[in-house]
Design a protein that fits this description.
By secondary structure, the chain is α+β, with helices and mostly antiparallel strands. It has a domain at 22-142: L,D-transpeptidase catalytic domain-like, CATH 2.40.440. It contains two helices and eleven strands, in the order H-E-E-E-E-E-E-E-E-H-E-E-E. It has helices at residues 2-20, 116-129; strands at 25-30, 35-40, 43-48, 61-64, 67-69, 85-89, 92-96, 112-114, 131-136, 145-146, 157-158. The strands form three sheets. The protein has a five-stranded mixed β-sheet, with helices on one face. Strands 5-6-7-8 form a four-stranded mixed β-sheet. Strand 6 (85-89) and strand 7 (92-96) form a beta hairpin. Pathway: Cell wall biogenesis; peptidoglycan biosynthesis. It comes from Candidatus Rhodoblastus alkanivorans. Residues 136-169 are annotated as: Disordered. Belongs to the YkuD family.
């Protein structure tokens, strides 16, 4: 009798497990347009990102969330802050960045950077609903960008088609003695 109950419980677990583990948040990172599309039960979002610059790589493929850390500091890159980190492939993560003027172009060491506010929103969604992550597209090279002549100019201008509207994504930047403290 006890064996039948155990067998029945195991059968129910195998049948119910796929339904219990379904991630509801779909994250699509498009390296070619430097954007992220997020679809969840609470709505859809499109945000500018920053992926790997020339000489570095952002892994492409289908991923699941490996771990999440609300407060994380890079062990490889100068103890740089990585707020609301969602790790998906070893040390690679989607996380917030305080270098918001670089969003929309590839400048990272491989992680997918988004604004701190968007990172907090995404972190909460993934925490509540789970997620799958797809990273697709060919990242633009540095030759596809025109950099500003001085620090006074707004943003780098992309020579190819624009990735996303800019104006409302600006956030305050942290400077120490006129320089950004984080690479």
């Amino acid at each position: 009798m006890r064996d039948r109950i155990l067998a029945g419980a195991l059968a129910c677990a195998f049948v119910a497990a796929p339904f219990a583990c379904v991630a509801k948040v779909r994250i699509l990172v498009d390296l070619s347009s430097q954007t992220m599309q997020v679809d969840s039960a609470s709505g859809s979002y499109t945000w500018p990102i920053s992926s790997a610059r020339d000489g570095y790589v952002t892994p492409q493929g289908h991923f699941s969330v490996q771990r999440m850390e609300a407060v994380h500091y890079s062990k490889e890159y100068y103890n740089s802050p990585m707020p609301h980190s969602i790790f998906f492939d070893g040390g690679f993560a989607i996380h917030g960045t305080y270098e918001t003027r670089s969003l929309g172009r590839p400048v990272s060491h491989g992680c997918v950077r988004i604004s701190p506010a968007h990172a907090a929103t995404l972190f909460r969604l993934v925490e509540d609903e789970g997620a799958t992550i797809d990273i697709v597209g060919d990242p633009p090279s540095e030759s596809d960008w025109t950099l500003p002549a001085s620090d006074d100019e707004e943003r780098p201008v992309r020579r190819r088609a624009a990735a996303a509207p800019r104006g409302h994504y600006e956030e305050p930047e942290t400077r120490i003695f006129g320089f950004f403290p984080f690479p």
